[in-house]
Design brief:
By secondary structure, this protein is mainly alpha-helical. The chain is built from 14 helices and 6 strands.
Length: 486
């Protein structure tokens, strides 16, 4: 017997490979005994877009400035292809051994265990959940940066753009943490669909504003539109050393690669989809929508942003004050970033909450604290199941995450390092290895060789990006003071 919100449901065992899988369904429960999934192509696409199109899209102009007009668009296209291709392989691993009629794998770790064994499951879990937690810390920092940017934008408007207008990030990080404590009480990933839709709309909003402002600046005369090789090596004012150029190129490639990745959440998103149609077929359409939409915005904003500012492109088109006017539009775009990150935080943290709650539920199966729930009616939301353990655990989790963000305000570089070691295993290695195991691809066939070559290339990218991130962390530590924002 398994406790779900205080109600016992006996899990229905379905033999893997059974083609009569649909007979186990009922009006209320799916074939695994859990409440019937209701997600569709649009809710799943909202989850993907919320996870993929982060505020990092606004730093792509800086990435192209390090790479130049040839290498920059090439890597944008290359990683779009890699992400889409491996997402197709991964979508087939939601059920095993058969991708349509097999047993459900409710999360990434279960899929890895079903196809590759227990040892690799634990390795996958460590990388996946550390990445999700790091993203939550990074989102706390980024959201506070956008809040501060609104305050500074108004200051620049009233005092002039050369004024100091220093504002501390710390109160805004704390405010963002309080907001996330409230939203973290949404019981599970399935019920965050509306938050993801709002967040996806916000991502379109600030991306479109950044794109529009960049196009407007490109049409102005009297400034550089970038170069073939990007930022130059030399000793002039806007030139850098050879070593700095290498590290920044590595970091730029890593930024592009990790900006596309949603592999850490693909299985969890797929687990929200209703059946029929088969989940893998729907998820492949979702991947196409998500990657296509992402590629359009990434290419447009990256290229037009680089054309607007040339090799002096700021690290962030909006919070880095590449644009000062119209200030109200810049303020609105930064507000959209904050709203988007509120939703993205939940998309990344809900799988972490589920992991902790499932483990404690199994460990203490008779605990009333863990299993008993009470229903509250929340205005504009409806009935909400409130569980005391969930309330305490998620509040402590968000508070601890906020504290880390306050202690390490340069944590984005560490997130980049975690992303560097997470990109290859989660986006490339595990999907390829599971596909080879599931489809029994024989060694040294053309397909096997192609998959191994792709994996090796992406491993080199991850290693290079890690070195670039480490170089950034070393520079940050030279000027680091706890609880002091820049």
């Amino acid at each position: 017997m398994v406790q779900v919100d205080g109600i016992a449901h006996k899990l229905t065992e379905v033999e893997s490979g059974s083609r009569g899988c649909s007979s186990a369904y009922s009006d209320e429960y799916d074939d695994d005994g859990l409440p019937r999934r209701t997600g569709n192509i649009w809710t799943a696409s909202a989850h993907v877009i919320t996870a993929v199109i982060g505020s990092g899209v606004l730093s792509l102009a800086w990435s192209l400035a390090q790479l130049g007009w040839i290498a920059g668009p090439f890597f944008l296209t290359f990683f779009a292809f890699v992400t889409y291709y491996t997402s197709l392989l991964q979508a087939d691993c939601y059920r095993s051994p058969d991708p349509i009629y097999g047993k459900r794998n409710r999360n990434y770790m279960e899929a890895v265990r079903a196809n590759l064994g227990l040892t690799q499951q634990w390795l996958c879990g460590f990388v996946q959940y550390s990445m999700l937690w790091a993203a939550a810390v990074g989102y706390t920092i980024t959201a506070s940066t956008s809040m501060v940017a609104i305050k500074r934008s108004n200051c620049f408007h009233s005092r002039g753009k050369h004024s100091a207008c220093h504002v501390s990030n710390n109160p805004y990080m704390a405010a963002f943490g309080v907001i996330e404590i409230v939203f973290s009480q949404i019981p599970d990933f399935h019920r965050t669909w509306w938050l993801s839709i709002v967040a996806a709309v916000m991502s379109f909003g600030y991306s479109s504003i950044g794109l529009g402002l960049s196009i407007g600046k490109v049409l102005e005369s009297g400034h550089s539109h970038g170069t073939i090789g990007g930022v130059s090596v030399g000793h002039a004012m806007h030139e850098i050393s050879r070593a700095t150029k290498v590290w920044q190129v590595f970091q730029a490639i890593g930024n592009i690669a990790f900006a596309y990745s949603f592999a850490a959440l693909l299985i969890e998103i797929q687990d929200t989809l209703k059946n029929p149609p088969p989940e893998n077929k729907t998820m492949k359409k979702v991947s196409l929508i998500g990657v296509s939409t992402t590629t359009f915005f990434y290419t447009a904003i990256g290229c037009f942003g680089y054309a607007a500012f040339g090799n002096n492109a700021p690290g962030d088109l909006l919070t880095g004050f590449g644009f000062y006017n119209p200030y109200w539009l810049v303020d609105f775009a930064n507000a959209c970033i904050v709203l988007h990150l509120i939703g993205a935080y939940q998309v990344f943290c809900q799988p972490l909450f589920a992991l902790i709650e499932n483990r404690t539920s199994k460990r203490w199966s008779n605990s009333k604290l863990i299993h008993d729930s009470h229903v509250m009616h929340v205005p504009f939301y409806g009935p909400l199941s409130v569980n005391l353990f969930r309330l305490i655990m998620r509040t402590v989790f968000v508070s601890a995450t906020t504290l880390v963000a306050l202690l390490l305000p340069f944590f984005n570089d560490i997130v980049g390092l975690i992303g560097a070691y997470g990109f290859w295993p989660l986006t490339v290695y595990f999907p390829i290895a599971m596909y080879i195991s599931q489809h029994k691809v024989r060694s040294w066939t053309i397909k096997w060789v192609w998959l191994q070559v792709l994996s090796a290339i992406c491993l080199l990218v991850s290693v290079s990006a890690a070195f670039g991130s480490i170089a950034g962390i070393v520079q940050d530590l030279k000027h680091y003071t706890p609880f002091k924002s820049a």
